[in-house]
UniProtKB/TrEMBL annotation:
Gene3D superfamilies: Vaccinia Virus protein VP39. This is Methyltransferase domain-containing protein. The lineage of its organism: Bacteria, Bacillati, Bacillota, Clostridia, Lachnospirales. It comes from the Bacteria. The keyword Mitochondrion does not apply.
Amino acid sequence: MNIKWNAQGYTDNFKFVHQYGEDVLNLLDVKKGMRILDLGCGNGELTKRIADMGADVIGIDASKEMLEIARVKYPELTFIQENATSFTLDEPVDAVFSNAVFHWIDQQDALLDCVSNALKPNAYLVCEFGGYGNTQTIHHALGESFEKRGLEYNMNFFFPTIGEYTPLLERHLLKPVYASLFDRKTALVGEEGMMNWINMFVAKPFQNMEHAMAEEIKKEAVEKLRPILYEDGVWYADYVRIRLKAQKVEKIR
């Protein structure tokens, strides 16, 4: 995962991430006693929901800071610090669940190899993450402000179409059984909602930049976005999500 999280800021201001993720849980078809991996579990909110549904759940995340919050809130659950592109399990699981994680991963083949190896035969991957066009308006405004100053804006995200992602799944013996790409306009918290969103999720392009220059670019981009994404006193992010369910099989075709 190519980001270092402000775990407390994420927990305080971006509750919508796990709240929207609860809808994805419907695809899991949880039965009591199932063993489920929550990959990229963050602060553990959805891990707890899966446990409440009757599953034996393990949470994995690369962020020490996120896991510290998860362990304090839910000490009865199991949380492990591992990387999504290199983790292994002692025994395979009945399902891998992941919400708002895959678009942060640079090495998709390594990620899906780990997921496939973690699943029992005929078990399922259920996930949702940023899809093609996700937050395009925000990144365009930031890109313009970078370009105006002779700087290159590099987006550190992977936002695929269904057609792009299906072959990746199949290469790792994960047969897609459900896929949807959809717009989800998402309200942000407070008058500083857009600035907080940029600070939380778009840190990498500002690395090694002088603080004054970074703040100038961010403020300029926010003002460009105001006529587009600020409505009736509320900031919105132009989210597009891809939601998938894929089954572990012995071979494809």
